[in-house]
Specification:
Layout (H helix, E strand, L loop, with lengths): L1 H32 L3 E5 L5 E2 L3 H7 L3 H4 L4 H6 L1 H5 L4 H12 L3 E10 L2 E13 L5 E10 L1 H15 L9 H17 L4 E9 L1 H8 L1 H17 L5 E7 L2 E6 L5 H16 L2 E3 L2 E3 L2 E9 L6 H17 L5 E3 L3 H19 L5 E10 L5 E12 L3 E3 L1 H10 L3 H16 L7 E5 L2 H4 L4 H12 L6 E6 L10 H10 L3 E7 L6 H6 L4 E4 L1 H8 L3 H16 L3 E4 L5 H10 L3 E3 L7 E2 H10 L13
Parallel strand pairs: 11-12, 14-16, 16-17, 17-18, 18-19, 19-20, 20-21
Antiparallel strand pairs: 1-2, 1-5, 3-4, 4-5, 6-8, 6-11, 7-8, 9-10, 13-14, 13-21, 13-22, 14-15
Helix pairs in contact: 9-10, 15-17, 20-21, 20-22
């Protein structure tokens, strides 16, 4: 009996010692890892020695957990269906094979709620190497995981539109290119730029612009299939990756659908907004064997669509690269044009409809390049605007025109065209005042011409600058009235000196087109009522001149009276005719 008691006591002590060792080991690992709770299983992978913190994590009392399979506790509904996640399968395999594991991320379902746990465990072995189950630690990292997922999502998705961003689009192009190379197929890349979007931002503000972008993205998302991934590159630029694009007609139809879908009117904050879309497409690997080349090709095609006035799509062709290179070289040459004295001004006469006398000249910029010869303003002015050269060139034009106008009679004005970029430049007004002072030209002999597009920049203070120009005694002319974003509100807010009637209406009136006649009559009547003058542009024939005179325009400009001429010829004009005596029909060379 005594021997039996001794043996029982030693067994109990050994058992106690083992438990103490287990607890000690677990506590040490708990402290080292900062884990939330401890867990143990027996040889059948059932939970034993349930700790209070583990019971709290499971969401059940310890007595209900004790003896239950560990996987059943964490798998939730998946236990009955058998549809385990990859991570749960991996956990089951580790437990089955009795392998140690560390920091394993496992999706678990606790009382119907999906959570993320991080688990570590090692098999328990006795001195003889016999397996006695697992002991381990665990943490609930759901919040950290969600934060990481959110950060990952933010890194790959645009926050405003919820569309994939440039990073994800680039990855998609890489995969599409790899698949096309592997299977000898074709993929596509499509770039989309919104037409007239800047006007919305400038006139109604960025919040309305942002909401409009969200509507645009919804429309784009609605027409995508499994074959496309649509994302936002930034600003008002979007892109689409087409995984399989062997059928070029498929790309064409998709481009048309995009333009049609995005061009329908939008209702945003009680505003009805009309914008459009321009599209450029490229096929990989035909139009670019790398991601960068393919995107560049689509970008060049998009540029051509924008150049055509928007609302169009262009497929890439190699010629576009040639033109882009020419444009790049021309920009470099244009940057040197000012210092190399390659720019000059021509002057086209503006005559009085009553007397036929010259009342002013419009200054027209010309560029004669040693490399490119005589370059059309239609070609180099957009380059100057894109390259931000228009401000410095515009200043040269203003100073030169004021200086050369001093050679004319004091009754003759000079008109200088000013772009939106120039007008909203911070030093514009001081530059104009300086040009007048340096030349000695009185403010009432200078006329600044702007187009209706200037009002798309109201958010940048353009209207206030126009008011200050008028306050200085400088004349203000509205060019191309009726061809752009016409609004009578412009004329109510800004006291223009002159409204210029576009050549297209002059031609139409000469052919007795009812709408052209009605528009010119309305403009003339409105200008007269507001104390403004009217100038008809582009008069080339006697019929056009007679019609203009009949309709009541006060001034006329066009080839019928004189083509643009150099400064000396403009000066000499007054040596042949007395000021105010250049008559109708007297054409200058």
């Amino acid at each position: 009996m005594t021997g039996r008691s001794f043996i029982d006591r030693r067994v109990a002590e050994a058992s106690l010692s083992e438990k103490s060792e287990v607890v000690s080991l677990l506590l040490k690992e708990f402290e080292d890892t900062g884990a939330d709770w401890l867990w143990q299983t027996d040889t059948s992978r059932r939970i034993t020695h349930v700790s209070p913190r583990f019971a709290h994590a499971i969401g059940q009392p310890p007595e209900e957990i004790e003896g239950k399979p560990f996987l059943q506790l964490v798998a939730g509904e998946a236990w009955d269906s058998g549809k385990f996640s990859t991570a749960l399968h991996e956990l089951a395999d580790k437990l089955k094979r009795r392998d140690s594991f560390s920091n394993m991320l496992v999706p678990v379902q606790i009382n119907g709620e999906n959570r993320w746990w991080e688990l570590s465990a090692s098999p328990k072995l006795d001195d003889s190497g016999a397996f006695h189950g697992f002991r381990g630690v665990g943490s609930d990292i759901t919040e950290q995981r969600e934060s990481a997922d959110k950060i990952s999502h933010m890194a790959r998705f645009d926050t405003l539109t919820r569309l994939p961003n440039r990073l994800q689009l680039t990855d998609a192009v890489i995969k599409a290119m790899q698949a096309a190379e592997k299977w000898n197929g074709r993929c596509g890349f499509m770039m989309i730029d919104l037409d007239r979007f800047k006007a919305v931002n400038d006139t109604l503000g960025h919040p309305v612009g942002d909401r409009l972008l969200a509507r645009v993205s919804d429309r784009l998302r609605s027409i995508m299939t499994d074959n496309e991934l649509c994302g936002r590159l930034g600003g008002d630029e979007f892109a689409i990756v087409i995984k399989e694009a062997s059928d070029t007609q498929y790309m064409e139809l998709l481009a048309k659908k995009i333009i049609d879908t995005l061009s329908r009117p939008y209702e945003v904050d009680q505003h009805t907004l009309y914008i459009g879309a321009s599209v450029g497409t490229a096929i990989g690997p035909r139009d670019g064997r790398t991601v960068e080349m393919l995107m560049r090709s689509a970008d060049l095609a998009l540029y051509r669509s924008k150049d055509q006035g928007g609302g169009a799509f262009t497929h890439y062709e190699p010629q576009l690269h040639v033109q882009a290179e020419e444009r790049r070289v021309m920009e470099i040459a244009l940057r040197k044009a000012l210092e190399n004295d390659e720019l000059s001004l021509n002057y086209q006469p503006v005559v009085s409809a009553d007397s036929g006398g010259v009342v002013g000249f419009e200054a027209l910029l010309r560029w004669t390049s040693p490399e490119f010869g005589i370059v059309s303003p239609a070609k180099f002015v957009p380059i100057a605007e894109d390259a931000r050269l228009i401000v410095s060139i515009g200043e040269w034009v203003m100073r030169t025109a004021c200086k050369e106008a001093m050679a004319w009679p004091s009754t003759v004005k000079v008109a200088v065209n000013v772009s939106a970029d120039q007008l909203t430049e911070v030093n514009f007004l001081s530059m104009v005042v300086s040009a007048l002072e340096d030349s000695g030209l009185p403010p009432n002999r200078l006329e600044i011409e702007v187009t209706e597009s200037i009002f798309m920049h109201e958010g940048n203070g353009a209207a206030e600058v126009l008011d200050q120009i008028i306050a200085l005694g400088i004349n203000l002319s509205l060019d191309d009235f009726g061809t752009g974003y016409s609004s009578l509100g412009y004329l109510r807010k800004t006291r223009f000196t002159t409204i210029k009637v576009d050549r297209s209406f002059v031609q139409g009136a000469a052919k007795n087109a009812p709408e052209s006649l009605a528009i010119i009559r309305a403009v003339v009547a409105m200008a007269d009522a507001l104390g403004m003058s009217t100038t008809a542009e582009g008069a080339e024939t006697e019929e056009e001149v007679n019609m203009i005179k009949k309709l009541g325009c006060r001034k006329i400009q066009g080839y019928y009276f004189g083509r643009p001429m150099v400064a000396d010829d403009a000066k000499n004009l007054f040596g042949i005719f007395e000021p105010g005596q250049l008559a109708y029909g007297q054409k200058s060379a």
